[in-house]
Amino acid sequence: MAKTKVHYEYNMHCLSEILYEYLASAEGLSEWFADEVVERGDDFYFSWGGGPAEKATLIRYKPESFVRFRWEEDEGTKYFFELTIVIDELTEDLSLNITDFCDDGDEEENRLYWENLVENLKIKLGAA
């Protein structure tokens, strides 16, 4: 089944170095993205509510800039999710840009899911 590519942008009020740690490390991701995250090399195992872990592989990254993961179920496809830190050159405002793929018709549910996650992240960062 084909998936739809979606983009979101969230203004963040924090330092990029701190935000990157929440995006690229198991410890940081377990603070806002999943209940538990275990990192083994480039493989990250995410679990929620005591359920079985879901594997995602870190397929690209640039320190202090972005991380891109691919879920195990999406191996061999072009699908991924990417968390990118963008700093406006003029205003120096920082935003978190998210690229994801979701099933056709699930765009609104996906948007609400990410909004909730980012709100949790902002609370953890004190950036709400």
From TrEMBL:
Origin superkingdom:
Bacteria
Q: Where in this chain does the record put each START-like domain? A: 3-127
InterPro entries membership? START-like_dom_sf (IPR023393), START_2 (IPR045736)
Protein known as: START-like domain-containing protein
Upper classification of the source organism reads:
Bacteria, Pseudomonadati, Bacteroidota, Flavobacteriia, Flavobacteriales
